[in-house]
Amino acid sequence: MADKMATRQAYGKALIKLGEKYPDLVVMDADLSKSTQTAEFGKRYPERFFNMGIAEQNLYASAAGIALSGKIVCASTFAMFAAGRAFEIIRNSIGYTKANVKICATHAGITVGEDGASHQTFEDIALMRTIPGMTVINPSDAVSTEKLLQQAIDMTGPCYVRLGRAAVPVFYDENDDITLGKGNVVKDGKDVAVIATGIMVNEAVEAAKVLEKEGINVRVIDLHTIKPLDEEIIIKAAEETKAIVTAEEHSVIGGLGSAVAETIVKKRPVKMEMVGQHDTYGESGKPEELKKKYGMTSDDIVTAVKNVL
């Protein structure tokens, strides 16, 4: 495994293996197969690949029909177009019917970079977690992407898989246990718990290293499954540490931070800070510069930890 890989790239590689393992797997796209990394599946299994063109509502309506006929469907486009443009179709045709469609949405968050505000979605987790029965997954690296995608395909029913454009460090090992619906303690600690998802898990690990040098012991949790939420790992963190910080490449409204807050306010209230997009649009720029400007770096997590303590 490379030291860095985009989760969308890991998704494309995983599809090739899964295509051989599951003869009922169908992959669909909306004229973005090179970007979403589904193109290679199309070359290997042309009879099971459908490019629906720039017509996202049709993509997901057709995906629902194919799934309800007995197939497993992975349907991909950019997260903005999947969660945004096709929301009503996903809600009614996939969610309501419990169709076996995996909505594998790439290019999520601020790290879309130069594509700018129109393509940087910070609302998708919030939208998808409101759909009854929808599983919501946000892998943090290439290894977790492959493992969680396998489990998403093995389960029956609708699932939203959030994937990124930019290459991110691979920190999981192939032998690590990554289970859908169960968070992972990446680093243990007693002073504060940083609960992160997606690319922000690596930022949390880097922040913990900085804080350790200052005598602050940080527990880092990868909450790769936003729904169903692992309430047990959250409550345990609230009981065993002094405070919680959440970190996500998503709006702090309705995303991971909201989900964690909903849990602890009912079960074990503690002080809490949220790192993420704070009710603003993004802009065009290089991913790392945008992360810095909009407050989604390890430095921002360090600041949030100090504030909450």
From TrEMBL:
Cofactor(s) for this UniProt protein: thiamine diphosphate
Limits of the Transketolase-like pyrimidine-binding domain: 5-170
Gene3D superfamilies: 3.40.50.920, 3.40.50.970
Keywords: Thiamine pyrophosphate
Superkingdom of the source species: Bacteria
Matching InterPro entries: PDH/Transketolase, THDP-binding, Transketo_C/PFOR_II, Transketolase-like_Pyr-bd, Transketolase_C
Classification via SMART domains: Transket_pyr
Family recorded in the similarity comment: Belongs to the transketolase family.
This protein's name: Transketolase family protein
